[in-house]
Amino acid sequence: MTAADPSARPPIPGGAVSTIRGRIQVPALTWTTRAVMALGLVSALLPAAARMAAATVVVAAVVAVPLLRVAWLVHRWRQERDARFVRLGLALLAVVAAGAALAALGVGS
Question: Nearest-CA neighbor of 68 among 18, 101, 17, 32?
């Protein structure tokens, strides 16, 4: 968005309330939590191979959902032109990505 763009949102002044309400996030996180819980409970009844696959999906979801939430918030903070939180969110995602890369390379094991 440029300054000449009439649809550009003005930056939020200090002390003002953000317009991020979570209208999409809250139902998605609620649904994901319920689905992961159900899969975790059902996996106890599955045969060994299917149980391992279900456990892998559950762990992947538990790791991925918070990271997706941070990525969504970075997007929303960028829309609101809150550069401080955009930088912090990107830094957090970079630290997690670096840790994942080091783990994938076998550093520390």
Answer: 32
